[in-house]
Amino acid sequence: MAILRRIFVLIFIAILTQINIGKSDFLLDDVLFRLKWVEKPQSLVEELSEESSVVMTTSDKEQYRCFFPKTGNDEMKNTAYSGPSAKIVLKPLFKQQTCVYKIEPYWTYEMCHGKHLRQYHEEKLPGNEIKLVEYFLGRYEAPAITESVPKSIPTKKIDGKDMPYYEVLFSNGTLCDIKPKKARLTRLRYVCDPLARNELANIEEVSTCEYEGLVLSPTLCSHPQYK
To answer: How many CB atoms lie within 10 A of CB 80?
Structure first.
């Protein structure tokens, strides 16, 4: 054992001599692992936002701040959009005036894009007569030609997710029964759904003779801010 110990000591001395033991920094990372540190690593941290980081604590109570890399979606959000507005994107749909139907146990809703929203019920009477009860919940009101660009796009929570929407007003509907001088109106909120067919997904009366509807539209998906 004594001989082996002397051999190890001689080998260790030879290694120290080869790497110049006289330098006090021979055990630093840049010597042992040939790492080259940047002159000012703080500048890298300064360029990163604390909003995209999280503080992690080890079992030894040591804290480290971990930064998340930017994704393509983040870059798209930070880039100003200069393409056609949501009004222009939906214009071909409104021009076609295609109608879709939503059937419920009593009422049927007929929504014709760019035309009207109608609520009706057909009841069969003796003698094959049909009694029709209908209300126009609003007629399409085209947005102003110089429609202002919203500073922030409104969102609606759908299935637990905040979805951006474009609102279209349908006004001048059938006069209200409770408030005779007030015409019915509806605010339709168009949201992007690439698998939908521009259908009316939901409609509800939020106040007396005022309605809100949800339209699932693949057409709107061509606007990146509504995806």
So the answer is: 4
